[in-house]
Amino acid sequence: MRFLTGIAGERWRVSRKHFSSKYGRPAATHAGDPGAYLSLRNRILALRMSEPFEVLLGRGVLAA
Predict the structure, then answer these.
(1) For residue 50, what pLDDT is reported?
(2) For labelling, which of 35, 43, 51, 53 has a CA lying 20 to 30 Å from the CA of 8?
(3) Which residue has the higher pLDDT, 40 or 28?
(4) CB-based burial of residue 31 (10 Å sphere; 0-12 exposed, 13-18 middle, 19+ buried)?
């Protein structure tokens, strides 16, 4: 488990597997060393919906 620190000092845990797939290291840093890692781009898939829909979320309902 790794701990990440955000720019406002907030900290959160992330598994090593998730970290490796989400963050890349600067060229001068060895994998696993402390440092400023870069967030990798995310691939987001989207589908045009032709009718209104709702998605049940843990905090409520998203409707469009």
Answers:
(1) 92
(2) 43
(3) 40
(4) exposed
